[in-house]
Request: fold
Amino acid sequence: MVRISRVSTVTAVIAVVAAALSGCGSLAGTAVPGEIDVRSLAVGDFPVDKFSYPSDGDDDGPMLEGIRMSEAVVTSNQVDPALKFGRGSKVLADPAAAIGFLANVSEPVLKNRKMVVGYAASGADLDDPEGQTSPESGATAITVVALRFPDTAAATAAAEELEDADIGVSPDNRRLRSEKYPDALVHWRPGVASVGAFLAQDEFVISLFVQRPKADSKDLVSWVDKTLAAQLAQLGRFRPTPTADIADLPVDPENMLSRVVVADRAGQVPDPDRFAVYGRNYLIDSADDQPARARLLDESGFESTAYADGSSVARVRDPAGAPILVDGLVESTGEAYEPYPAVAGVPGAKCLRLNAQGDPQHQYRFRCFVPYKRYVGVVSSDNESEVEQKTAAQYALLANSL
Reply:
């Protein structure tokens, strides 16, 4: 059973279990002065030699662009600091995935206008009620979606058609106007404390859904305005891949994925949850305290992170940032994990073990962080022996890859 949250190991409850491993084998790599000889580590059957995955994404190009678009969508705390509870984010690989964030009647529009890919992120000022996947009625919550189309004309047409489809869902829906963003297409249902909006921007359509505690149209439009202001600024910092070049996007442009320990390297293909490289916003989107997570990433000099089969590797600006990232993430794991003895042969590794307050159906029993120079590996397992081997293998792989 895979026991890891949708947002992967680094953004979920993370910790490092480093267990003392010793052994020998014919592993690649030589000792560097001041470092251990990684050939002495018991890595089991995990491959630890330097490696590179095939380069081009080909048919997976749109998905790779969608993963890149995690940096094109604003985090909720950037809109308003009170929106500290991240509700997660998602690559929208096709129209069928996108209608999870739009009205069902929108799918023909997305197909006809040849939607390329999309990305959605959500946050609120209150945590979702336990066991629920929707904000409570008294919360302020926003969902921001960026949809990519082949060109500006397609995006402009799509925004208008999406608005018409959305507003046609109910005869009670009414249009609203934003004075600050007159091109925004805004609508609500009087008496309902939420508002929807679409705005075409270059080859993108921005879709907003805002929930507030009270059904006040002026208040709702003011939240559309402040959300659009933050989102347009974020989108302006993003450089989309030209449509003609999307098929040529590299799967692992900086060899981040190749540094993540996996049991089997064969058959790995781009997947937003299982095999992908993300920037900082992805880690913030699911954090219970987005401002604290953002501060940690800034203080550690975080640059990017790669996920592969439940393990991950993050890269920071310089070696001094690696222990800062490890300590900050371990500290943020909450009460479901407790310290666990680290592997004696792996320098700097830290570990946690799930306790009685944890949920073994959705959380791994063991989690470990493994710092090495500018990198932090994260490994997880329900099996104590396996997590020890993965911890050692992650350190050896990082050492052999640099």
About this structure: The first strand starts at residue 85 and ends at 92. The two ends are 33 Å apart (CA to CA). The CA atoms of residues 184 and 199 lie 5 Å apart.
